[in-house]
Amino acid sequence: MGSCLDQYQELLGQLRNQADLMRHSSTLLDAYIRVQGLDVSGLKEHCKGRPGAFPSEDALRRLGRQGFLRTLSVLLRHVLHRLTTLQQELPKAQDLDMLDRVKLTIRGFRNNLHCMAQLLPSSSEMAEPTQAGPGASPSPSPATDAFQRKLEGCRFLHSYHSLMHSVQQVLQGWEENPSRSRRHSPRRALRKRTCRMQPSRRDKRLMPRGQMPR
C-alpha cells in the first residue's frame, strides 16, 4: 500500500472523485466495444451486465462503512484479475496501455480505501477476506469462441461501471464531518485528559516541600 492522507475530508473527496471517474463508460467500456468490433447495431444491446454480478447499491449501504470498504477492496481485486485476462485478448498495443491506465486508477482507489479504513472508528489493519461472499465475485461464464469471449468482456465491463456508479452514490451519502474519527477517538481523548491532569515538571519544582498538589 502507498502513503495515506490523514485528513478525512480530503480523502473522502479523492474517493468520490475517483469513483465518479470510474463509473463512466467512456473510461473503458466504450473503447472496449469499439476495439472489439461490437459497436454495430444489434450487438451493443448484448453488452448489458448480468444482474447479481456485483452487489447492488442497497446491499453496499447495508454493509456499514468498514464492511463497505473491505468488500469493495475485494471486489476490485477481482476486477483487476479480470482486466488482466481481457488485456491478453486485445489486439493492439495502445489498447494495452488503456487498460494499464485503468488498472493503475483502480490500484490507487484501493489504496485510498485502505487509508479510509484507518481513519474510521474501530479500524485496524484492513484484512481482506478470501472471498467477497456468495454471488459477489464476478467470474466469466465459459466462452466457446472468440466472439462469445468479447461479449463476456463487455458484459463484465458494463457491470463494473454499474458497480462504480453505486459506489459513488454510497460515498456521496457519507457525512463530511464524522462525529468520531481516529483523531477524535476516545482513547486519544483520554490520553489528552490524562496529560492535562498531570502537573508539569516546572509546577513540581515550584511546590514547597511537603505540599501536595491540589
Summarize the structure in short:
This protein is an all-alpha fold and 214 residues long.
Structure report:
Helix content is 58%, strand content 0%. The chain has 214 residues and is mainly α. The radius of gyration is 24 Å and the shape is elongated. The chain starts with 7 loop residues before the first helix and ends in an 8-residue tail after the last helix.
Largest sheet: none
Mean pLDDT: 77
End-to-end distance = 49 Å
Provide the succession of SSEs: HHHHHHHH
What characteristic shape results from the CA principal axes? elongated
Strand content: under 5%
- Tell me the number of helical segments per DSSP (H or I, 4 or more residues long): 8
Cα Rg: 24 Å
Helical proportion, percent range: 55-70%
Number of strands: 0
Low-confidence stretches: 123-138, 180-197
